[in-house]
Amino acid sequence: MTTPASPDDPLTLATILEEETELLHGPLPKDHPVGAPDAVRTAALFRHIHACHPKRAGLCFSGGGIRSATFGLGVLQSLARLQLLNKFDYLSTVSGGGYIGSWLTAWIHRHPQGLDGVIEDLRVTPKTGATEVPPPVQWLRNYSNYLSPHLGFLSADSWTLFGIYLRNLHLNWMVLLPLLMVPLLVPRWTIALAQLNTPGRTLPVWLLQAVFMIGLGLAVMALIYLHLCRPTLREYRRNTRWQTLERQHWFLVACLGPLITSVLFLTTAWAWFRNGGGTLEQLSLPHAMLGGVFLHTGSWLFSVLVLKRFKAFSPWLLWETAAVAATGALGGLFLRSILMKTPDQLVVATFAECFATFAVPGVLAIFLLTATVFIGLASRFTEEQDREWWGRTGSWVLIVMVIWSGLSAIVAFGPGLIAWTPKIAASLGGLSGLLTLVLGFGSRTTAQQQEERSHTTVITDFAVRAAAPFFMLCVLIALSLGTSWQLDLFAHHYEMHLNHLTGPMQTGLGIWPDPWGHDQVLHNTPLWMLFLFTVAVTSLGLLMSGLININRFSLHAMYRNRLIRAYLGASRIQAERERSFNPFTGFDNLDNPAMGDVRFDDVRLARWIAREVFSTDTRAQLDAFHALPEPTSAQLQAMIAQLTQELSHSLTNKALAKAAEQLRVGPACRAKIAALQQPETPAGRDAMTWLTSLFLNQLYDQSPRPLHLINIALNLVKGDNLAWQQRKAQSFTISALHSGSWNLGYRRSEEYGCNHYLAQPLSLGTALAISGAAASPNMGYHSSSAVTFLLALFNIRLGWWLGNPGRAGADTYRKASPNVSVGPLLSEAFGLTDSCHPYVYLSDGGHFENLGLYEMVLRRCHCILVVDAGCDPQLNFEDLGNAIRKIRIDLGIDIELNLDQIKRATDAKTSSRHHAIGMIRYDKVDANATAGTLIYLKPSLTGNEPSDVQDYTARHPSFPHEPTSDQFFDEAQFESYRRLGEHIAQQVLRPAIQRSEQDFSSLCHALRSYWLTTPPGMRESFLGETDDLKDLERLLRDDPDLLRYDLEIYPELRSVFGIDPGAIAVNPRAALHTCNLQIQLMEQVYLAVNLEEFHNHALNRGWMNLFRRWTSAETFRLFWPTLCGMYSQQFVRFAEQHLNLSIDEVVVLEAMGPASDLSSLARDLSIEWDSVPDYAETFMQALHKPLPLEEPTGDHTRRAAWHMRLKARPSPDDSAGPGEILAVVAATRLSVAGHRLALHGWVRPAYRGLGLGHRLFRRAIEELTAAYSGHNLIVDLGPDNPAWAGTSIRNVGWLRFYEQLGFTRDRSDPASFQMTRILR
Question: What torsion, rounded to 10 degrees, do the Cα atoms 480, 482, 486, 491 define?
C-alpha cells in the first residue's frame, strides 16, 4: 500500500479507495501498480472493482430529518426480511438518513452475532404485542420525540432545551459582540479626535505637523505600490519577491491599509488646523496644486528608479511623466475647490459627527476621481489589463467608502433616527428579525431554489431579503447604544458623567438627539477613556475566543447529545446501559462509540485468527459445532474449553501485536488485545470470553460490511473555484477508516479531530450530528447572505469546525476544534468559509448533495439503492437532479433515469409507482466496465398502501412529505412513515427475489426486466403479430421441403426424439423464401413493439428468444446477407447487434484471381449502366487487367483487384460454386508521368447499405497506398452531364460514398466528372 511522502501529508483518493477495497473484498491483485501515480492506481482499481463478482453494491439514505430516519427504518426491516441487508458493501447516509444509518452501524458492532444477528432481529414480526419488537426498534419508538421526549409547559426536557440555548447564546455573544463593537468604536475615535485643538484643549504644533507628515508618508507608500505593481510592468519585476506583491493580500497590506490610514491622519490634521483657528487662505491654490504634483510625481519617480525603467527609455515615458504630474496637480485642485466651499469660521468640532461620516470617504472620492483622469490620460501607453487592475483597486476603495460611511452614520445618527419614530422602529425591527429567522429556514426561500415559484413564494422571499438587512441595521444601532451605556458606566468608576440628559446636544445635521444621551457620550468621552475601553473590549473578545470553545457552545452539542441518546443508545444492551447512564439527565457517554471502533474489528480479528492461528482440527470442530441444530449445554462448554485452550496456546504476545498492526484496529479492540496479553487479570479473562464469543457466534464467517460513509458538506461560501460559486460546498466524508474530501485529501479517522484533553477520538455521534447540521450560517448551495450574519449572531449554529484534512491543516487535523474562536466565528458570520485555511467548516451533507449518491458513484458501486425521503411535496426531484448534475460535472458519469411513473398527473393525488430504475453509465468512462443500476425509492402514494397509512394520509394531506422542521413525531406519525417505507421496499423488491442467496447485482438485473415500463399499445401490437407467427409455424410444420431447415431451428427434435435428417436434402428455394418471411415478421415485430428500446422488456422476452432460435440456424445465417439488404437499416443494425447476425461470418474479402467468374457481375453492371455502355466496358477491362502491386514474378504476382463474395456452402459432391461476388474494386494506371491511378469499384445493388463497399474500398486504398504512396487516385464517374449535378439519386449516393473515403472533385478534365485523392 502506498503511504504519504511524510506523516503530515494527506492520504490521496487512490490510497483510501485501495484500503476500503481491501477491507471489503480482500487483498488487491498481485499486478496492482502499487508505486504508480495516483491516476494509474485509481484506473487499475476501478478495473478490479468492475471485474469483481458479485458486483459492488451501495445503500443510500437521504437527508430529511426524523422523517427520513423513520421511513428508512421501514426500508431496513423489509431488506432484512427479504434477506438483502447483507448484500450491500457500502452504507451512505446524509443528515436524517444518518440517524438510522448510524443506529444500524452501532447495532451491528454491538450485537453479539454482528450483522447476521441484526438481520434476524429485524425480521421479527410482532404477533402478540410490543414485547416481541426488538429492543433497539422499540427504543426508537420511545424516542420519536428525540429532542424533547417529554413535552409540556412544565417539562424538564423542554426547559432544558431553552436553558441550554440561552446559556450558549450568552457565551457566543461574549466572543462575538466585543469583536463587533471594535469597528463601531472607530467612528467614536474619529469624533473624539475631531474635537481636539479647540479652546481649552489645545495641542502642540509639532503634534499637528507630525500627524500631517505621517499621513503624507503613508500616502506616498500607497502611491508607490500603485506605480510599482501595474500588470504591464511585470517584465521589470523579475525578482520573485517583487512578484509576490501582486497578490491581493499585499495590496490590502501595502496599499489599501496605508491609503485609508493616511486619509484618516490627513483629515484629522485638517480638523485640528481648523479647530485651532486656521483658515483656507493659508493654503493657496498654487500650494495645493504643487503639493499634489510633488506627492504624485515623487512616488512615481521612486518606482521608476526601483524598477530601472529608464534603461528602456521611450517617448511614452515622458508622456507618462506629464500625465502623473497633471493628475497630481488636478488632485490638489479638486481638494482646494472642495475646501473653498466650507465657511471660514467653521469649527470642525461642532460638526464632528458629519466629519466622522463624510471626511474620509470624501477624500477617497477625490482620489478615485483623480485616478479616473489618470487612467484616461494613460490610455495611450497602458493595456487593458492595467485598466482592469485599476478597476479592481477602485472597487476596494469604494467598499471602504461604503463601509466607513455606513458604520459612522449608524453610530452617529442611528439612535437619533430611532428616537424620531420609536414605536415604528421597534416594531419593524422586531418584525424583521422574526421574518428573517422563521422564513429564512424555509425550503421555499433558499437562495438557489430550483423549483418554479408562485407569487406567494416570491413575496416571502423578498420579505426575507429585505427584512434581514433592516434587522442587521437595528442590531448595529442597538450595539452602538449599548456601547454608549457601557462607556457611561465605565466613566462612573472615575467619578465622571458622560451623559447629561438635562442639556442634550444637537448633531451636526440638525437631527434632534436621542433621549438616551447617546450623542452626549459621543462628544464627552475623553481619549484616554476611549483608549482604555477599546483595549478592554478587544482584550475581552480575544480572551473569550481563546477560552470558549466555538464547537462546544453552539447548538451542535445539544443536538448531538439527543441524537446519541435516541439512535446510538438504542443499540446498546439495555441492562448494561441502566448500570452506566445518568439517571438525572438520561444521557450516557458510552452510547457514543468512536469512529475507529466501528470498522468491524471483531469480524476482521476473528477472520485473521481463523486463518493465521487456528489449526485444521479446531476449524473442523467449529464447523461441526455450528452444524448442530441445537447444541446442548455440555457441547457448548466443551467448545468453549477447546477454543480457550487453542487461543491461550497459540495467541502469543507477538501474534497479538502482529494482528493489531496488520489490521489497524480501533481503540476499543486494541484495549482488548492488550488485556489478552495479561490473561490472569480480570480484564484478561473478560477479553478471552469476548474472543471466544466471536467464534461461537460465527463472526469469522461474516464479511466486514457495510462500510458506513457519513456524508457531510465542506462549506466554500468564499471559495476561489469560480465554477463552484453556486454549490458553495464540496463533498466530505467520515468513515471508520478515513475522513476527508477527494480533492483535498484524507486523514485516518482515529487520528482526525481528536480531543486530546479528554482522550476522546472523533466519534460516530459527532459525525452523525455534523451530517445533520441543517441550520447553520453557512449552508453550501442553500447559503443566503441575507441570513448568514443573523444566524451566527443568534447562535443558530449546528455546524462544526475541524482541522483541514489537506496540506493546509498539517498542524491542525488532529485537533477537535480551533484554539481561538475569533477567526472561525467571523468567517461564519460573514460567509468567509473556504478550504484554504487550517480549519474547515462542516455542516449538513444535504448542503452539497442530499442523497449520498455522489460518493457511491465515486467508489464505482455497480448497484445502488437510493432511498430519497427528502421533503418534496410537488415531486420535483430537486435532490436527485442536483446529485446527477454534480456527478456528471465532477466524475464525468451520466445517470439515465425516467421518473414519469413516480410523477403525479395534473390534479391527481397518487402516482403509478413508488420507484424508478435507471442506468449508471460507467461503460462510457471506465475501461472494461458495464453500466450500473440505480434503484430509486421515493415516498409516494399509489393507492395500495395499508389501511392505517391511508387513514393517516386522509387526516394529514401533506403526508408523506411533511416539513423537515417537524422533528417531533407522535406515535401515529412514526408508524405511518415506518410502515410506508416497509411497504414500498416490499412492493418494489419482492417480485424479483428468486432465492435467498441471490446477490444484489442479479436482483437488479431481474428488477430491470420486471419493472421495465410497458409503452402504450405494446400489448395490442404483441397480439396482432401472433397471427403471422401462426402462419409461419404452420408452413414450417407442413412443407416437406423445409424438414431439414425445421430440424436446424429445433435441434431438440433430433436430440430428444431421435429424428435423424439422414439424407434429407435442403431445398434452397423453399428455405430462402421461408427465411425472407421470417425476416419480414422480425421487422414487423421490431417496429410494432419498439424492440430498439424495449428488447429487454419482460413482455418481449418470448419474441427475442424466438428470433435467437431462428438466427442460430445455419441456413438462416447463410441467406441473411442475401436478404438483409431489402430491409431498413435500423432493423439490420439491431439484428446485427442483438441477434449476432454479423455479415463477416458469411462474407469473404480477398484478392481477386485471374480465374474469377465475372459473368453474372458483368450482366448486373450492364443493366445499371445501360445509358453509358463505354463505362461498363472500361470497368470490365480494368477487372481483367488490374495494376500490379509488386514486381511481376510470374502467375502469382499480386494485382490491384479485390472482391467480396459469399462463402460457399460445403456439399458432399462439391457441386457448390465458389460463392457469389457481391462487390469488386480494381486499379489501373492512367499515366506514368503524372503518377495518376484510376480506381474502378462497384457494389451490387442488392447488397448496398450494409457497409461492404466501405470495407472493400478501404482495403484497396490501404494496399495501394503501401505500393504507390504519393500517387493521385482518380475515380471517373462518367461524362460531366446534368445527371451528375444532383438530379440522379443513384449518382448522388456514389458521390457521398466517395467523399466519405476522402475523395474530392477534380475539375482538370471538363469533359468528365472525376474525383481524386492522394495516396498517403
Answer: 60
Q: For residues 749 and 708, is the Cβ–Cβ distance under 8 A?
A: no
For residue 1278, the SS3 value is: strand
Q: Which of 840, 837, 794 is nearest to 817 (CA)?
A: 840
Short-list 662, 724, 647, CA closest to 693: 647
Instruction: Report the range of poorest mean pLDDT among 89-98, 256-265, 899-908.
Output: 899-908
Concatenate the DSSP letters of all residues of 853-866 into one string: HHHHHHTT-SEEEE
Place of cell 506583491: 245
Contact 307, 232 (CB under 8 A): no
Cα→Cα distances 1090→592, 675, 1098, 1135, Å: 56, 68, 13, 13
Residue 1118 CA to residue 1308 CA, distance in Å, equals 46
Q: Which letter does DSSP use for residue 681 in this model?
A: S
Contact criterion met (CB below 8 Å) for 16 and 738: yes
* Least reliable range by pLDDT among 369-373, 497-501, 929-933, 1188-1192: 497-501
DSSP letter for 958, please.
T
User: CA dihedral defined by 69, 74, 79, 85, rounded to 10 degrees?
Assistant: 30
Residues 643, 650: Cα–Cα separation, whole Å: 10
H-only helix segments in 9-87: 13-25, 38-51, 65-81
What is d(CA 126, CA 117) in angstroms, rounded to the nearest whole number?
17
C-alpha distances out from residue 873 to 848, 868, 882, 988, Å = 21, 12, 17, 21
Hey, what amino acid is at 55? Answer: K
SS3 1177: helix
Amino acid identity, position 174: M
| Residue among 564, 714, 558, 562 nearest 169 (CA) | 558
Give the other-Cβ count within 10 Å of 395's Cβ.
Answer: 10
Nearest alpha-carbon partner for 606 in 653, 654, 571, 651: 651
Residue 795 falls in which region: left (phi positive, over 0), alpha (psi -120 to 50) or beta: left
Q: What is the pLDDT of residue 465?
A: 63
Q: pTM of this prediction?
A: 0.78
Of 1154, 1196, 1162, 1167, the closest CA to residue 1179 belongs to 1162
Query: How many CB atoms are closer than 10 A to CB 81?
Result: 18
Give residue for cell 408562485: 454
Q: Is 436 exposed, middle or buried (0-12, 13-18, 19+ CB in 10 A)?
A: buried
At a CB cut-off of 8 Å and minimum separation 6, what does 309 contact? 233, 236, 317
Q: Which of 971, 909, 914 is nearest to 70 (CA)?
A: 971
So what's the pLDDT on residue 1024? 67
Residue 1294: strand, helix, or coil: helix
Q: Other C-beta atoms within 10 Å of 207: how many?
A: 13
* Residue 660 neighbours by CB under 8 Å, 6+ apart: 669, 670, 673
Cα–Cα–Cα angle for 1123, 1128, 1133, nearest 5°?
85
Return d(Cα 724, Cα 730) in angstroms, integer: 9
DSSP-derived pairing of the beta strands 1236-1243 and 1221-1231:
antiparallel
Give tens-digit pLDDT for 717-772. Answer: 887 777 777 888 999 999 999 999 998 999 999 899 987 666 678 999 999 999 99
Burial class (CB in 10 A: 0-12, 13-18, 19+), 421: exposed
Q: Show Cβ contacts of residue 788 under 8 Å, excluding neighbours closer than 6 positions.
A: 717, 777, 778, 828, 829, 830, 831
pLDDT of residue 684: 87
- R_g of the chain, CA atoms, integer Å: 42
Q: Which residues is 746 bridged to in the sheet?
A: 11, 740
Contact 97/63 with Cβ under 8 angstroms?
yes
- Of all residues in the chain, the percent with pLDDT exceeding 70 is 87
CA–CA distance, 1133 with 1092 (Å, rounded to integer)? 10
